[in-house]
Amino acid sequence: MMIRNREKIKLILKDGIEVNSISDLRKNFDFRKIMQYFQDRKLITWLESKFYADEADAVKALKLNDKYAPQKICDILGVNYEDFYEELDDPETIAWRKKRREQLKKFTNDAEISKKIDTVAFNQDDLEDILSDPHMPEKIYLCSNFYRFPSGILRKEFVTYVGIGENVLVKFDTQTPVDVSKLEITFENIQFTEEDENAY
């Protein structure tokens, strides 16, 4: 790209503000516009024009149809995805999250956990859905209920399970006793079924 063209490359974000650095971009982050600039490849061109070569290469490597592109772009640009991801939600997903947040209030009013409602399990199906996500979180919240941990779940390493409310009960559903001390898994505010207590 010729130097004289660099000044013509603009990113206009929140409130019509033109950003000239990644620092500016973070302060005025506009999720929808950034995704538009990603789709038309203007984000790549802008990053290259500002000499952010590593970031430009990382964005260039993403596929337009990658459903995890928004999260990956936030990671590349140094923005917390959890602060913005709901801006792209469809009405059905927004309603779904609202309903789950109302359900969460039965157990806690913690605003930080509410922001991470996608990582909150109210039952076994929720837990398995969370664990099936390729971008599985490092911390999963289990609301008061009974949860089974078969060998497949126990193989998910470097995860912290945090119980919310009382009587969060976990059973290790395996053929052999589980030595939790050898697992790369952490449990907080969680009880274990009687036969598993000694293992923990």
List the helices and strands and how they pair.
Blueprint: E1 11-12, E2 18-19, H1 22-27, H2 31-39, H3 42-49, H4 53-60, H5 69-77, H6 91-104, H7 111-115, E3 120-121, H8 124-131, E4 139-143, E5 146-150, H9 151-154, E6 159-164, E7 169-173, E8 185-188, E9 191-192, H10 194-197
Parallel strand pairs: 3-4, 4-6, 5-7, 6-8, 7-9
Antiparallel strand pairs: 1-2
Helix pairs in contact: 3-4
Question: Can you walk me through this structure?
Answer:
The protein is of the alpha/beta class and 200 residues long. The protein has helices at residues 22-27, 31-39, 42-49, 53-60, 69-77, 91-104, 111-115, 124-131, 151-154, 194-197, and strands spanning 11-12, 18-19, 120-121, 139-143, 146-150, 159-164, 169-173, 185-188, 191-192. The protein has a 4-stranded parallel beta sheet. Strands 5-7-9 form a 3-stranded parallel beta sheet. Helix 8 links the parallel strand 3 (120-121) and strand 4 (139-143). The N and C termini lie far apart (60 Å).
